[in-house]
Write a structure and sequence with these properties.
The complex is a heterodimer of chains A (373) and B (78).
Chain A: E1 2-3, H1 15-28, H2 38-57, E2 66-69, H3 72-83, E3 89-93, H4 98-109, E4 113-117, H5 127-133, E5 138-144, H6 156-165, E6 169-173, E7 190-194, E8 206-210, H7 248-262, H8 266-282, E9 287-290, E10 297-302, H9 307-318, E11 320-321, E12 323-325, H10 330-336, E13 343-347, H11 354-371
Parallel strand pairs in A: 1-11, 3-4, 3-5, 5-6, 6-7
Antiparallel strand pairs in A: 2-8, 7-8, 9-10, 10-13, 12-13
Chain B: E1 2-5, H1 8-20, E2 25-29, E3 41-45, H2 50-59, E4 66-71, E5 74-77
Antiparallel strand pairs in B: 1-3, 1-4, 2-3, 4-5
Classes of the chains: A alpha/beta (373), B alpha+beta (78).
């Protein structure tokens, strides 16, 4: 199989990731922060090491401000539900994934006001568009770093500046960029990221960075291994937002994934592969590349074929894993004019080769030729 | 000596900072008798380094809840 769905989850993982998970499960197995015995302490050391590696990666001074979640979706939900209350306004970009849209709509139903920042023709959210949308009531502005549909990269540092100048808070969704595109989160308020995409950890890992001084209401309440006499969640981070046992086996894998991406060189390589694929796909009759492929994603609009069926044929006839449809981001497809049938999305990863990309382009051409009517 | 801290993560940060200065410490669960909050974590270190521990905690913005000397099988708050 040629795996080109790394925007859904990266595969394969570096061997050290799976080795670390197996080793943790077989040789450690303790619950971090739950007890004083050696298994618990060793588990805690692994979790702490991962927190520190992530803090360094995102230029965050205090690793206690990083909370582990099961994915970026849970991180986004923690941020939105923890900050946006009745009467306050939340702005989300028109390129957001349902991970942002749905919790925002749920807050709207609970009495908050929700507005959408429009995208330009490439699917980009400009600082100017953000500034024009902010009102004095705006509490939180949510913008995706790179669209999972188009791969278009937003200038989140500039957006952060604009939002702060207007007295609101920022939440950036780094689902497609964490580990791939350098991120300096030191001036951000909130950053949500998955562990299982370009950080090369396993599924079931992710995290949320919360700026120092920002106190969120917890999404989940429960045991933290600290301040147990209190019926309330502790104020201290990360415990405040980490109720219940962590996915320590997953975090052991994520630790090695983060170390893997820190070796560098992935962005240039993956961008080059994505652009190579975009160029070849764009030359195929009946295929139109959507967006600007700023990261590892190439989305193709098909004029004469169904995207989902084309993906199924690529898999069945050519052994190529790509994804057709709306990619859980209907707003983005509305913005790009592809809401009708969606797009066929290819996304490269650390282990994709130029030959894989060329094979995918040839296979797409073959599928489209025989699908055309 | 024991320094009681707010969380396991705080204890890990403090331990790492001290280790960078060559000071050995261990993370331990806080004995029940020393806390009114229930479960918690402490750092065990040589009491001669209390000043260094206080300084590191300040730099890391970690609130040490209390310091305890271990004596005669018990603890004395310092």
């Amino acid at each position: 199989m040629i795996y080109l769905d790394n925007a859904a989850t990266s595969y394969p993982k570096p061997p050290e990731v799976t080795r670390a998970m197996a080793s943790f499960a077989e040789d450690c197995g303790g619950n971090p922060g739950r007890g004083g015995h050696s298994a618990s302490r060793r588990a805690a050391e692994t979790v702490f090491a991962c927190r520190e590696e992530l803090a360094e990666l995102f230029n965050i001074e205090n690793c206690e401000r990083i909370v582990f979640t099961k994915n970026a979706t849970e991180a986004v939900n923690t941020a939105i539900n923890g900050l946006v209350d009745e009467g306050s306004e939340i702005l989300i970009s028109a390129m957001e994934h349902n991970a942002v849209l749905r919790p925002a709509v749920a807050r709207e139903a609970a009495g908050a006001s929700l507005r959408v920042i429009p995208a330009d023709s490439d699917g980009r959210i400009t600082p100017e568009a953000v500034e024009a949308a902010i009102t004095p009531k705006t509490r939180l502005v949510c913008v995706v770093h790179a669209s999972n549909v188009t791969g278009t990269l937003n200038d989140i540092a500039a957006i952060n500046e604009v939002v702060h100048s207007r007295g609101a808070l920022t939440l950036f969704d780094a689902a497609q960029t964490a580990g791939l595109v350098p991120i300096d989160a030191s001036d951000f308020d909130l950053l949500a990221f998955p562990g299982h995409k370009s950080l090369y950890g396993p599924q079931g890992t992710g995290g949320l960075y919360v700026r120092e001084g920002l106190m969120l209401s917890p999404l989940t309440c429960g045991g933290t291994g600290s301040a147990s006499e209190s019926p309330f969640m502790p104020e201290r981070m990360p415990d405040r937002l980490e109720a219940g046992p962590l996915n320590a086996v997953g975090i052991a894998g994520l630790l090695e994934g983060v170390r893997f991406v820190k070796r560098g060189g992935l962005l240039e390589r993956e961008r080059e592969l994505a652009r190579r694929l975009a160029e070849k796909a764009g030359d195929i009759g009946g295929a139109e590349v959507v967006g600007d492929n700023g990261v590892n994603v190439v989305s193709v609009k098909l004029k004469y074929a169904d995207c989902v069926e084309a993906a199924a044929r690529l898999d069945a006839e050519h052994g190529i894993a790509a994804r057709g449809g709306l990619h859980c981001a209907p707003m983005a497809h509305r913005s790009m004019g592809t809401i009708g049938g969606g797009t066929l999305r290819f996304s490269v990863g650390a282990f994709t080769t130029p030959e894989d990309v060329d094979a995918a382009a040839s296979a797409l051409e073959a599928v489209l030729k025989s699908s055309a009517f | 000596m024991l320094a009681t801290v707010p969380s396991q993560t705080s204890a890990s940060r403090l331990k790492k900072s001290l280790a960078a200065d060559g000071i050995k410490s261990n993370i331990t669960q806080t004995p029940s008798a020393l806390t009114k909050e229930g479960c918690g974590y402490s750092l065990r270190f040589d009491g001669a380094y209390r000043g260094e521990v206080e300084r590191a905690a300040r730099e890391l913005r970690i609130t040490v809840r209390a310091y305890f000397d271990e004596a005669d099988g018990g603890y004395i708050k310092r």
